[in-house]
Amino acid sequence: MQFEVWAPLSGRVALRLDDATYDMARDPDRDGWWTAQAPAGDGSRYGFLLDEETTARPDPRGRRLPDGPDGLSAVVDLEALAPRPAPPRLPLQDAVLYELHVGTFTPEGTFDAAADRLGHLVSLGVTHVELMPVCSFAGRHGWGYDGVAPWAVHEPYGGPAGLARFTAAAHEAGLGVVLDVVHNHLGPSGNHLPAFGPYFTETHHTPWGSAVNLDAPGSDEVRAYLTGSALAWLRDYGVDGLRLDAVHALADGRALTFLEELSAAVEALAAETGRPLFLIAESDRCDPRTTTPRAAGGLGLNAQWNDDFHHALHCALTGESQAYYADFAEAPLAALAKTLTRVFFHDGTWSSFRGRTHGRPVDHRRTPAYRFVGYSQTHDQIGNRALGDRLSASLSPGLLACAATVALTGPFVPMLFMGEEWGARTPWQYFTDHPDPELAEAVRSGRRREFAAHGWKAEEIPDPQDPATRDRSCLDWSEPEQPDHARLLDWYRTLVALRRTHPDLRDPDLAAVRVAHDEERRWLTFRRGDVRVAVNLSAEPVTIALGRNGVRVLASWEPLEHPGPDGRIHLPGESAVVLGP
């Protein structure tokens, strides 16, 4: 078997394989690469000794770390993984995404346990499961954004074989799989990459420290390392798309950016395999060039999360105005109306949170709506709150129904966060399992210090290292059977079905969306072709002139009569309705 590793700064590299050691030779055709041939098979443990080191380090491109990030790698026979059924052909423009954290979707916290619940997602009607990061990280439980081995699968979840089984089960059920990957930083514990080469650079600094090296000397190999990892998820495990974490934090000054290279590589793989692969960015820039095709001067990513839509909807529902919500809180329904038609609220406007103007306009007449993902809740917007409280902790079932209605009938590709479809009462809190006591204390005290600035007492903030914090965050699968939860779940199923059966709700023409609202009376309506949507966020009933008669109720949260001949509808408080021909 061929073993190879990029270690350009080392004068000697040896392969430790099971109980044997083999000297490696420099590759004459690839600068900084070392190779060796040795007999090995699936499960063989191996690592690399750099210079005079006596303890082997895991392979930066290793697929499996049975003992965690500080242990040896294990050979994985990719051909022996789960059989791969033909994946469903599910284009992004018709998608309904479902964000899922493997470690808390079930109490067991494994791929296999999550796969056992796929029937729920099929009955809900979503098209893709979006897994939060599954790369190896220190400890058993965590969000996954502090991964340290971008090619390896977290062993407690089930390792490579578990991911392969999950993807196969999802495809068998007709669901696509999207995987969240992190290229902007690596975790602080168990990160061996700096010992191998210039994977990081002091040229730039990020909130996590030295930046990943995308533009300094040695960056060609670092880019290839990250691109290779991304393609491996798509090619070797059958994943259908990737969500790229915080691309605004990628420090990259090169003329041809890493994101453009990655976009081109994924496009080439899609052409090679005949599968509709895609990339979804998380970006704070409000810059339409993120999703503009490369041929038109953009980065070429297929879609991006639209936090402005979330913030406007959240403020309209809750009245909150802290931190970045301040920009949306003065007139939240007007902000929501703007995002429904022009995508970004900040499109060159003043941002009080940032203390400067922010964003760039979207050409809404030429940009399809499926370039953007819309949602009322995500792991970030829940877990980064002090208590990890969901909307269900403070809103009535009627307002939860309104939130679902706007997100699922709006122009963007909708995404749900696990459990929101039944109004889960379990929080989703920030939890870690760092084995390093100093790091654990730094995370604990840092989080308490962060929220102390906003008036929280230290004892009120859940301890990330307490196993109970993770346990509280696991979904309670008895809830969907309870009457109040079951009613909301049925509403979600109804809305997802309407999106599937009414092409107007998948129309990508942003210029065709028409919105009306009343800030004082707290109602909003919008039109998608022949479909009308109305939500009343006030506790008081309202009468709304739809501007058209002859429409009928397709779905309503509360019992509702069809509009009269005058085209007016009487909408109860905290309720929503979808109308059509």
From TrEMBL:
Keyword flag Hydrolase: yes
Known EC number: 3.2.1.141
InterPro entries: DUF3459, GH, GH13_cat_dom, Ig-like_fold, Ig_E-set, Trehalose_TreZ, Trehalose_TreZ_E-set_sf
Catalysed reaction, written as an equation: hydrolysis of (1->4)-alpha-D-glucosidic linkage in 4-alpha-D-[(1->4)-alpha-D-glucanosyl]n trehalose to yield trehalose and (1->4)-alpha-D-glucan
Pfam families in alphabetical order: Alpha-amylase, DUF3459
Keywords attached to this entry: Carbohydrate metabolism, Cytoplasm, Glycosidase, Hydrolase
SUPFAM superfamilies recorded: (Trans)glycosidases (SSF51445), E set domains (SSF81296)
Subcellular location: Cytoplasm
Pathway(s) this gene product operates in, as recorded in its UniProt entry: Glycan biosynthesis; trehalose biosynthesis
Domain Glycosyl hydrolase family 13 catalytic, first and last residues per copy: 99-499
Family: Belongs to the glycosyl hydrolase 13 family.
PANTHER family the record matches: 1,4-ALPHA-GLUCAN-BRANCHING ENZYME, MALTO-OLIGOSYLTREHALOSE TREHALOHYDROLASE
Protein name: Malto-oligosyltrehalose trehalohydrolase
Organism (species): Streptomyces amritsarensis
Lineage: Bacteria, Bacillati, Actinomycetota, Actinomycetes, Kitasatosporales
